[in-house]
Amino acid sequence: MSHFRCIAKHPTISLVESSCTSLRQINQVHTQLLITGLLDDPFLHAQFVASIALKHPNLLDYSTRALDQNPNPTVFAFNSLIRANSKSPNPQKSFQLYNKLLKSGHNPYPDNYTFTFLVRTCAQLLDCEASRAVHACVMKRGFETDPHVQSGLIYMYAEMGLLGCARKVFDEIPLPDLVTLTAMVTACAKSGHVGFARGLFDSMPEKDPVAWNAMISGYAQCGQSREALDMFNLMQMEGVRINEVTLVSVLSACSHLGALDQGRWAHAYIGRKKITVTVTLGTALIDMYAKCGDVNKAMEVFWGMREKNVYTWSSAMGGLAMNGLGHECLELFALMKQERVLPNEVTFVSILRGCSVAGLVEEGRMHFYSMRKEFGLEPIFEHYGCMVDLYGRVGRLNEALDFINKMPVKPHAGAWGALLNACRIHKNTKLGELASRKIVELESKNHGAYVLLSNIYADSKNWDRVSNVRQTMKAKGVRKLPGCSIIEVNGEVHEFVVGDKSHPRYGEIEAKLEEISKRLKSSGYVANTFPVLFDLEEEEKEDALCQHSERIAIAFGLISLKEGVPIRIVKNLRVCWDCHAVTAIISDIYNREIIVRDRNRFHHYKDGACSCKGAFSYSLFIYPLLPSIYYLGMGEPLRMIDIVQKAAGIMVHEQGSVLVLPRLLFQPVDSSPR
DNA sequence: TATAGGACCC
Length: 674
Prior knowledge:
Elements: H1 11-18, H2 23-35, H3 42-55, H4 60-67, H5 75-86, H6 93-103, H7 112-125, H8 128-140, H9 147-159, H10 163-171, H11 178-190, H12 194-203, H13 209-221, H14 225-237, H15 244-257, H16 260-272, H17 279-291, H18 295-304, H19 310-322, H20 326-338, H21 345-358, H22 361-375, H23 381-393, H24 397-405, H25 413-426, H26 429-442, H27 447-459, H28 463-476, E1 484-489, E2 492-497, H29 506-522, H30 537-540, H31 549-560, E3 567-571, H32 577-589, E4 594-597, E5 602-606, E6 609-610, H33 625-630, H34 640-653
Parallel strand pairs: 3-4
Antiparallel strand pairs: 1-2, 1-3, 4-5, 5-6
Helix pairs in contact: 3-4, 3-5, 4-5, 5-6, 5-7, 7-8, 7-9, 9-10, 9-11, 10-11, 11-12, 11-13, 12-13, 13-14, 13-15, 14-15, 15-16, 15-17, 17-18, 17-19, 18-19, 19-20, 19-21, 20-21, 21-22, 21-23, 22-23, 23-24, 23-25, 24-25, 25-26, 25-27, 26-27, 27-28, 29-31, 32-34
This protein binds one DNA strand through helix 5, helix 7, helix 9, helix 11 and helix 13.
GO biological process, one term: RNA modification
GO molecular function, one term: zinc ion binding
Keywords: Repeat
């Protein structure tokens, strides 16, 4: 049998890897190998075990059993199984395999590979004790000088948040090489010390694509998306080879920034360089397009993908829900079930959000209960929050409260937040007080809870209490996050904060803001001076001219983008009511499409209307009045300009009686994604 | 066989 050692892979093994997709086919090959006695060869046996373990992670039991079918399994066979298990839902099993390896007596001893995989298991489990034990074994067996083991240990400690330990391993390496340096760069970035990671990266005498990718994904994961893109540009300038991993990180950064141009460029690059669109890369593309507001393109990518997994489906469904297309999201779920792709927890978050934006309470309930019954998935906080939102938004406040009280886990701030928001919409002061008290108990610095509560008091003209809330906030040092908007112009990302005057073109921006203000006035717009909406950003306004970050960004978009090019803005907070109204009017008077992504959804403004419909009121920290007036007394959208004037009238005269209309009246303004 | 390894909800 020794001749098998001379060839890279036995043809039968190649068969397992390439064409065996079903258990039945693998069984056939397996039987063949058993009958012919080929499995008695330890080398071939190891190849067989390894190929099943790594290519078919869902058949781990099968490959584990196959390990026993050779009396002298090699350490390679053990290592492959340990590796496969470290990535599985039950990583502990790799420890059992390690014990088995130690007990198997004769030739196989753990080697450096064994430990690089065991270390991954520890990182997966976040088990400090196991980590220390594994590190001790590494020392005992003398592998502490192996660069791969070293970098594995660095990775392990970083994953556990023990950067000090990672550092210690690193410092003991006399001459760190590319691999260990890269591991340390990753460790620093993962622990949030991305600046330090960069310093280390810059000090590296040589850098390969892996090192560059580590740095880019480090920035992307720390939320420093702009730096990630800068790094990517630098990487290109240096002529470093760009691969799939690079592009996934880049697309992820684009998603966070809403940098559609850069994302499109990356997509075109993939096409130009004929890079294979794998499931991961395709999913990253879908996510990018959806989060940049181009849901049509996201779906185009989705339909074009041959292979789709649960990530792909969840991503597309989440994108549809986020863009207000709840019915389409549910349709997609039906299709997903038809294709027999098993949903996971994340899929259900998308489904429930879809139900929420479409106002489908019963359907949402049905899906929520089917999670456990049909799919054995335990609901997590997000799902409970979605359910409270589902009941609350249509005014079924008691059911929402009931739902919270019956939660098998301690209700989190998000669940109470959804209720509080519903109380604001439906003017339930008493329940609103309860909800906000609960939130503050859980998160004493949750500014959203204070803002919403004060809005509820303001609705009932209880000004004393409004100022009480404001005082409490001051006393407790609760501050609102500064609003910040970004806009991409010619592939460059510009960032504006409230009252920002730092931009080099601020002079032009200011002139544009004044012009906008004038044109708004002449179109009949009355500036939002209603005391009803207590908006903390109000305090930060510097003059009569609205200085909210998205307005500055819009003004900049108007002066710097060609006519007809949609203005795309990404905001870190929710858009406020006034900006929402104003943006719609700007879209009309400047005949410009404006797309704003706020904290968790999209607003597509066109010809004076916004696509968000009722979805404007979503969870915590929102200004939910608009949708109620949006469709007032009509089956179809009013022009924004009318709405604003109407709203002004209504709000001035009848603050307490703005009606929330049944969701059935909401007509989609958007086109269908397909 | 290993270092980067990424995508869906947060």
